[in-house]
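[worker-b] picked up task from shared queue
[worker-b] task type: protein-ligand structure
[worker-b] ligand name resolved to flavin-adenine dinucleotide; SMILES cross-checked against name lookup, match
[worker-b] sequence length check passed
[worker-b] input payload:
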Amino acid sequence: MSARPRARLLRVLRIEPRTPQMRRIVLGGDDLAGFPIGSEGAHIKLLFPAKPGETPALPVFGEHGPAWPDGAAKPVVRTYTVAKIDDDGLTIDIVLHGDEGPASRWAANARVGDPLGVAGPGGPELFRAEASRHVLIGDPSSYALICAVIERLPERASIDALLEAPDAAEIQALPDRPGLRARWFSREGEPAGASRRLLEAVRELPWPQREAVSVTLAGESAQVVAIRDFLARERGVPRSMMYAVPYWKDRWDEDRYHDERHRIMDAFDAEAEQGVSA
Ligand SMILES: Cc1cc2nc3c(=O)[nH]c(=O)nc-3n(C[C@H](O)[C@H](O)[C@H](O)COP(=O)(O)OP(=O)(O)OC[C@H]3O[C@@H](n4cnc5c(N)ncnc54)[C@H](O)[C@@H]3O)c2cc1C
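[worker-b] inference finished, payload out:
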């Protein structure tokens, strides 16, 4: 049986700029002890204080979910990805998309020593290892996920990775390995929710009829939904072969978008059960 989740209070050990709009933050401290090794790509919740440098209140997880200390200000909670976990610490790649997002603002202003709450890791299966072919689709918010999947796939795997960046400066190297065909697309300023570049690239991918294909898809909501529906309906990819998670929604903050994300995912599961998309 899996242990009840717990929240940890960690501190920023290192900060590395990856691109103009991405910061790699490495967290550590005594409370990191026991964090599951090998959980790269898993979901984590980050608990942000009102201002960098302040200590966020942490929940205690009981039978009825998280309980917060009496009178404490509840931190802003956002979902991120384990980019790496090893003796150096817990690494997270955070997109800096402006000051109106509390997580992005915290990451842009963070300094070594700042506290941050972390709960998890958890989340669904990221890919189906038994497939011979893997299609990975994402953007900078899912860069850590896609790198983790590339690193974890079996040696013989044939992989297509398609990623979209807001502009050319945000394009980053992916892990180098045989069998990987990687392509980046630049939106050149177009709003993410309106871009059809990834959908078009997915449409053009040759799709063998008799091969089991595993799809790992995450990024902006409108794009994820359009690509997921295309793959289910036009390419016959069953729900069980897809990790398809909308990570963020253009012009919606996470507090407003959270429930909508779960509605989108539940509706897809329900359709698959009725045999519509599988
Ligand atoms: C399972 C999961 C894993 C994730 N892993 C990562 C990760 O490893 N790294 C990462 O950077 N993000 C990741 N995300 C996405 C991240 O949770 C969202 O981007 C979140 O909205 C950021 O919170 P915020 O407080 O900065 O902005 P919010 O307050 O949620 O939003 C403020 C504004 O910023 C816009 N916005 C939000 N995210 C982005 C973005 N990525 N690009 C451009 N505009 C944006 C919103 O549309 C809104 O207009 C993940 C999401 C999920 C569900």
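[worker-b] attaching auto-annotations
[worker-b] The chain has two domains: 7-122, 133-273.
[worker-b] releasing lock
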